[in-house]
Amino acid sequence: MLLFDPEPPYLRWWLSEGECPREGRCLSGADRAERVARTISQTAALKWIGYLLHNGGEVVTDPVSRLTPEGLDRVRQTIELLPEHNDLTCRVAQEWLARRPEIPHLLLCDTGFFWHLPPEASLYAVPYELRKHGVKRYGGYGLCHQWAWQQVERLQDGRAARVVSVYLGDHTNVAAIRDGLPLETTIGFSMVEGIISATACGDIDPTVVFQMQSEGMPLEQIRLLLSSKSGFAGLLGKRAGLLEVLNATSDPQARLAKEMLRYGILRHIGACIAVMGGVDALVFATPHPGACLGFIAEICRALACVGVRPRIGPIEQEAACELTDAASLVRAFCLGYNKWQVLAGYGSAFLTNQGNRT
Question: What's the CATH number for 2-109?
Answer without folding.
Answer: 3.30.420.40
